[in-house]
Amino acid sequence: MSNNECAFGVVYVKFKPHLLMVLVQLVLSFLYFLVEASLNKGMNPHVFVTYRHAVGGIVVLPFAYIRERKTWPKLTLTMFVELFFLSLFGISLTLNMFFESLKYTTPSFVASMINTISPLTFIIAVGLRLEVVDVKKPRGMARVFGTVLSLIGALIMTLYKGHTIQSLRGAPFNVRGKLVHNNWIKGSILSVASCISWSLWYILQAIIVKKYPAQLSLTAWINCMGAAQSAAFTVLVQRKPTAWFITSTVELCCIFYAGVICGGFVIFGQFWTAEQKGPVFVSMFNPLGTILVAILAYFVFGEQLHTGSLLGVVIVIIGLYLLLWGKESDGDYKSQQSFPTHVEQKEYRTQIKTSAEEEVPQRSVSHATN
């Protein structure tokens, strides 16, 4: 193997979480427009969340069984409850509010609101001592200022529109339809509530993935339980049986894209990265999604932009850079955790058992000598 290949391998391993999160944001950026197009066709957002994760669970489950069935941790009542709340905050509660807000706003708006997740996650993680910040060091200060700048950029994009930049003529696609985005207050409240729930999900991810290290199996659990929770909620709020019917190719493509790609690959990628680098690192890439959505909205889907949005994007980029630079000082996130993983717990119990077995013969010899 040449020196160039070795150098490339080292760089790839170091930046693998970064590349994975960039790919995740790119995949999610297309989802906003697919969902809006499906909502224009009359699809119920709660039905969409249910179908999306039912498909995701069905697709991931066989791979989880083949690869991880020998490493499954014991499913205790405590673990089941933790998986229930992880599904609640990560899928059924968060996504039902999130995609409902898309009915009253636009893809660019909801994508900009996601930027509040990073500072919220950072604040909660510091409060729970999952993240340690040394404000006396430059990297620690960079993380604080980066978080503040990301929040300020998100607020500017949300609250300040400025001059309108007319949509690009001759855009390849146009997803605008019968949706009337005139209830921004309701949409904003739903977006904020979903972001708070999303932040809690990132925190729970970092904790539970240590106890349940089989990420594919965990992804299948989350999809299946989230689909069941969302189905129960949909039955309560949507009494029309016709709402469950898929009436267009756009809706079918949206469900399979969201279920297979987003419900499978994205969730698995976030679980893996949260275990490697921590919950704040995962949430830090949400601003990149805002930038990608804004670019797609203007050049591909013909959506209007505003100078306030562009100003917010610039501030978000600066904040993201500061966060990443400060986060690099953390090193290996897994080595910093105080709670042991499932494998470490098993090894520790084995060591205790071995020590006890060695101690018993020594005591017997001592009694015999006496």
From TrEMBL:
Name of the protein in its database record: WAT1-related protein
Similarity-based family: Belongs to the drug/metabolite transporter (DMT) superfamily. Plant drug/metabolite exporter (P-DME) (TC 2.A.7.4) family.
Species of origin: Glycine soja
Membrane topology of this protein: Multi-pass membrane protein
Predominant place of localization: membrane
GO molecular function: transmembrane transporter activity
UniProt keyword annotation of tRNA processing present: no
Biological classification of the source: Eukaryota, Viridiplantae, Streptophyta, Embryophyta, Tracheophyta
Record key words, sorted: Membrane, Transmembrane, Transmembrane helix
Localization (cell): Membrane
EamA domain sequence ranges: 18-158, 186-324
InterPro entries for the chain: EamA_dom, EmrE-like, WAT1-related
Segments crossing the lipid bilayer: 18-35, 47-65, 77-97, 109-128, 140-160, 184-204, 216-237, 243-268, 280-301, 307-326
GO CC aspect terms: membrane
